[in-house]
Amino acid sequence: FSSGVRKRRSLAFGLWAQVGVISLASVPALVAVSPWGTCQRFRDYANVVGFLNTVLLCCQYVPQIYVCYARKGSGAVSYMTLGFDALGGYAMVLYKVFATHERLSSWLPYLIFHSSELAVIAVAFWFDFTRKGKGARGRDKTLLPYEPGTVEAHSPGDHEAGDWHEAM
Questions:
Q1: Which residues does 119 contact at the CB level (< 8 Å), separation at least 6?
Q2: Which residues form a coiled coil (predicted)?
Q3: Residue 49 burial class via C-beta count within 10 angstroms: exposed 0-12, middle 13-18, buried 19 and up
Q4: Handedness of CA 59, 60, 61, 63 (dihedral sign)
């Protein structure tokens, strides 16, 4: 098969997988609000969805924490963005807990999510701080690994069409 056909099949498979998961996830809610359903069933469903959301949010920053740990530095992590987002999230969690007295399933996912942001900041800061403190030069903060000096800076206009790739 050509790559275009494979890509279309992959996209179609992804679409149908999402439709299937969403349909399956909506069945308990439809049963809970049906005439034979009860408020207790709907509340239980909401709690389950809240805890599943917590599990998914726990997994969201795991790759970033791993990359910061593996590369021993922050890379493209923005301390300010994650820090302000975490502080705002904690303010929202405190409001949900103490002002509106919401259930655990409604504020726990946010607490976990914003704690994960602080974990990313802590791991990245630790390696950035210890690297600077020791005077050691850490890995370069590039998306693609390369050896310094092996890639020359050229623009396509520097060479004739086709041979500018040879410099890279």
A1: 61, 65
A2: none
A3: middle
A4: positive
Amino acid identity of 114?
Answer: H
Q: Which residue has the higher pLDDT, 29 or 141?
A: 29
Other CB atoms within 10 Å distance of the CB of residue 127: 19
- pLDDT band of 162, cuts 50, 70, 90: very low
- Extract the tokens encoding 164: 């500018």
Angle subtended at Cα 108 by Cα 42 and Cα 104, rounded to the nearest 5 degrees: 50
Q: Are the beta carbons of 28 and 45 closer than 8 angstroms?
A: yes
| Band (112; pLDDT cuts 50, 70, 90) | confident
Please report, for the chain, the start and end positions of each structural domain, with discontinuous segments joined by +.
11-137
Q: Give the pLDDT of residue 90.
A: 95
Classify 72 in phi/psi space as left (phi over 0), alpha (psi -120 to 50) or beta: left
pLDDT digit string (tens) for 78-88?
Answer: 888 889 999 99
With a threshold of 0.70, does the pTM exceed it?
no
